[in-house]
Amino acid sequence: MLKNHADPVKISQGIDIVSVPRMKLAAERQGPRFLDRIFTPEERRYCESKRMKYEHYAARFAAKEAAMKAFEIRRQNRFRFREIEIRRRPTGKPVIHLSREARKRFGLPMRCEIEMSMAHEREYAVATVLLLVPAGKS
Ligand SMILES: CC(C)(COP(=O)(O)OP(=O)(O)OC[C@H]1O[C@@H](n2cnc3c(N)ncnc32)[C@H](O)[C@@H]1OP(=O)(O)O)[C@@H](O)C(=O)NCCC(=O)NCCS
Fold it and tell me: Which residue owns the Cα nearest ligand 1 atom 45?
């Protein structure tokens, strides 16, 4: 990855905020197919295991939108929400996982790093994503 920390790095960032009650309403109105279209089975399992599950869904939705902004992906590029998966380190820290194919389709260089953070409460969930690319590689 970005081995030499003295190398210049280009940083691109994305941020998003999602209303938790709106996420709940959409899921209740449109049924499980709505959630299955956006979230991977692992994301679904994690959120469904939580008492305030729509906060966790909303945070992950915000993270996917924030990633789109950081990666400069346009919806017209046949972007699928499930291509961006939010996984968790053992500490609970969230990380973005992309398949090799998704990285290619999004035009991300192999030598890039992605950092993210999320927070949520009853009304809103927020997420930020940083894309770090060695300068001259994008
Ligand atoms: C981690 C912590 C900061 C979360 O804060 P919070 O106010 O409870 O909740 P927030 O809404 O702000 O954030 C929740 C999100 O924080 C993220 N998070 C959890 N643990 C994290 C960590 N170790 N590092 C970074 N982010 C973390 C997750 O994305 C979580 O959302 P999710 O459960 O939907 O995945 C809080 O639990 C804390 O201070 N814990 C004590 C320190 C700790 O346990 N550290 C990790 C173990 S080494």
Answer: 91
